Amino acid sequence: MFVLIFVAMVLLAHWYLWHRLVRQTTRPGRLRKALTWSLVALLAVLVTTFVGTRMGLESWVAWPGYIWLAVMFYLVVILVVLEVPRGVAAAFLRGAERRERAPQSEPEPEPVAVLAGTAAPAADEPVEVVEAGERPVVTAVAPARGAAPMSRRLFLGRTTAAIAGASALGTVGYGMASALGDPVIERVRVSLPKLDPRLNGLRFAVVSDIHLGPLTGVGHTERIVRMINGLEADVVAIVGDLVDGTVAQLGALARPLRNLESRYGAYFVTGNHEYFTAEGPGEWIEELKELGVRSLRNERVEIAHQGAVLDLAGVNDVGGAASGDGPDFAKALGGRDTGRSTVLLAHQPIQVDQAAEHGVDLQLSGHTHGGQIAPFNLVVGLQQPVVSGLASVRGTQVYVTRGAGFWGPPVRVGAPPEITMLELQG
Predict the structure, then answer these.
(1) Looking at residues 348-364, what average pLDDT do you find?
(2) Predicted pLDDT of residue 131
(3) What number of H helices and E strands is found in the chain?
(4) For residues 250 and 239, is the Cβ–Cβ distance under 8 A?
(5) Sign of the CA dihedral 212, 218, 221, 223?
(6) How high is the pLDDT of residue 333?
(7) Helical (H) or strand (E) element with 333
(8) pLDDT band per the 50, 70, 90 thresholds, residue 95
């Protein structure tokens, strides 16, 4: 059902772009045909990208399609926003045309001489007969001729298209620079009422949604590892959506994770994208173990710091429920000392409802990308209780990181990539 809805929206978007950017900016002819087929070609590139990436094809297949997806999205958004001023301008032009069609005095036509005996003027062509010696001369009025001027409606269509095109390309260019650049280091302090005073200052480096895939190279992972190590954190928390493919495809991109440095180790929980491959998350769990990253599979560990203990738990993503590998909060959180503070790693913010039922003090999540491409942040807010940042839900605090990577288009607008340095306070 999701695929059908997505395909329908893509087709509708392309039809809308053809109507606004081709039909209303050109006259019938070769240019219109060329632009129409260009739009069809871009649609074919987009389809090839989605099919190709699912088949594990090389990155050169993905780049043009994903970039066009972002440009297409912003063209549609900007054109929709311009519909109101465009409608006002069109109404004004219609009024001007009606005024021009009103009766007004005609200028005297300029006569053109035609010798008698030649082809007669058209029936509706004004004529004047003048005697000239022995042969009469018939004069026909010839209307002034010249290049057809651009209509007001054509001018309006081209102006709207130019504004939308320049705005969309500028936005996507800015978004690519943001997505492919260094993540922002967000420094956050979280107060936990039950926190043992000896745990004050315990630091978590939180990263999510790295999305190793066809558009990322090993440099993407190396940069993230380097930035995390520079934070000198006590605990590294990788909160899901690490990969978009199999170990065979992306194993080399993940190898820099073996260089992660922290006092008490690096921990991982699955995100929904770990369940997208036929192999499931199992092979990545083993691969991460070889790289020194421990996966918390509906389980918890004790973090002992300065003579005090903190419970660090992790649950599987809700996307694993369909394959019998979903979250089990009772298993991860049951039987613990409720007098101790508990930090939970759970990929999706929506899991905070169950976390609250089990008395979790703080949940660390990702998944949302902060919307990644504005105004998608408004849509994400309809499905998740928190889009980004720190919030409280039913007495449990939840911090949602925007993620260090991107999914789909290599574009981030209004939601720069993030690595979080989170410090606990009592």
Answers:
(1) 97
(2) 52
(3) 10, 15
(4) no
(5) negative
(6) 96
(7) helix 329-333
(8) confident
What ranges make up the beta strands (E) of 120-183? 127-132, 135-141
Q: How confident is the model at residue 304 (pLDDT cuts 50, 70, 90)?
A: very high
Task: Please check whether residue 241 is in contact with residue 210, taking contact to mean a CB–CB distance below 8 angstroms.
Answer: yes
Q: Are 315 and 327 in contact (CB under 8 A)?
A: yes
Task: Residue count of the chain, please give it.
Answer: 426
Give the global pTM: 0.84
Q: 272, 316 in Cβ contact below 8 A? A: no
Query: In terms of DSSP bridges, do strands 127-132 and 235-239 run parallel, antiparallel, or are they unpaired?
Result: unpaired
What gap in Å lies between CA 46 and CA 107, rounded to an integer?
Answer: 57
End-to-end CA gap in the chain: 47
Strand ranges in 270-400 using DSSP code E only, listed in sequence order: 293-295, 299-305, 308-314, 342-345, 362-365, 389-393, 396-400
Contact of 267 with 235, CB cutoff 8 Å:
yes
Cβ(238)–Cβ(293) below 8 Å: yes
**Domains, the chain, with CATH or none:** 2-98+152-176 (no CATH), 111-141 (no CATH), 183-425 (3.60.21.10)
The mean pLDDT of the chain is: 89
Helix (H) or strand (E) holding 22: none
> At residue 331, does pLDDT exceed 70?
yes
